[in-house]
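Long-time lurker, first post. I've been practising inverse folding by hand and with some scripts of my own, and I keep getting stuck on stretches where the structure tokens seem ambiguous. Below is the full token string for one chain I'm working on. Before anyone asks, I'm not after the true native sequence, just a reasonable design that respects the backbone. If someone could post their per-position residues I'd love to compare against what I wrote down in my notebook.
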């Protein structure tokens, strides 16, 4: 979505439209998008290009009777990718229908382990509320897994058994309960998605 080549940006719009048609046929109403990389251009230029592409994508959904499908730009794990929390929230400001996809593992990886304390996680929740409002905070989309990272950011997904890289899921569940959010969580652990999702769910239910 942030390519300097117009053809690639328009192809991204076609992919978004195709995904929206597919999820609509299955009775869903959300699609997740990766907004691209910065390459050799500045982050500001990349974001401007992605914003322009997103505007075209929103128009395409409207013109195809898919205005109810919500596009969720995702926070990304590699440092050279477009997808910091700030960049995702800026994209979401384009339209009330856009929801942030907060991948906590990605954010931890791209900040080289920056999510350590409760306050680190709370700042994410507060940023969503302050930038997009309480309604979108309550229904944000999320991916969660522990992720190994290098100096460039994300390397590979791990399981909850990992004790080295993180991040911890407990603060996310605690803040979700505290702020009475009802997001959609997708567990992306490496091969233990169901098991780790159940761990998150049971911990959350204990907090209620």
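-- Answer (accepted) --
I ran through it position by position. Result:
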């Amino acid at each position: 979505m942030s390519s300097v080549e117009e053809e690639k940006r328009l192809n991204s719009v076609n992919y978004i439209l195709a995904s929206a048609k597919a999820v609509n046929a299955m009775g869903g109403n959300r699609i997740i998008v990766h907004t691209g990389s910065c390459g050799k251009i500045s982050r500001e230029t990349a974001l401007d290009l992605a914003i322009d592409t997103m505007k075209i994508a929103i128009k395409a959904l409207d013109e195809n009777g898919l205005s109810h499908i919500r596009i969720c730009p995702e926070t990304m794990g590699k440092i050279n990718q477009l997808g910091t929390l700030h960049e995702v929230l800026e994209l979401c400001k384009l339209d009330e229908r856009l929801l942030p996809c907060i991948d906590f593992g990605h954010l931890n990886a791209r900040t080289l382990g920056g999510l350590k304390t409760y306050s680190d996680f709370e700042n994410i929740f507060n940023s969503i509320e302050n930038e997009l409002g309480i309604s979108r905070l309550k229904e944000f989309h999320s991916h969660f897994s522990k992720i190994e990272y290098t100096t460039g950011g994300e390397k590979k997904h791990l399981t909850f058994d990992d004790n080295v890289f993180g991040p911890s899921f407990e603060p996310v569940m605690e803040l979700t309960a505290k702020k009475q959010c009802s997001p959609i969580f997708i567990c992306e652990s490496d091969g233990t998605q169901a098991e780790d999702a159940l761990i998150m769910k049971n911990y959350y239910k204990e907090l209620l």
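A couple of notes from the structure itself: The mean pLDDT is 97. The chain has two domains: 1-98, 100-208. Happy to go over any region you disagree with.
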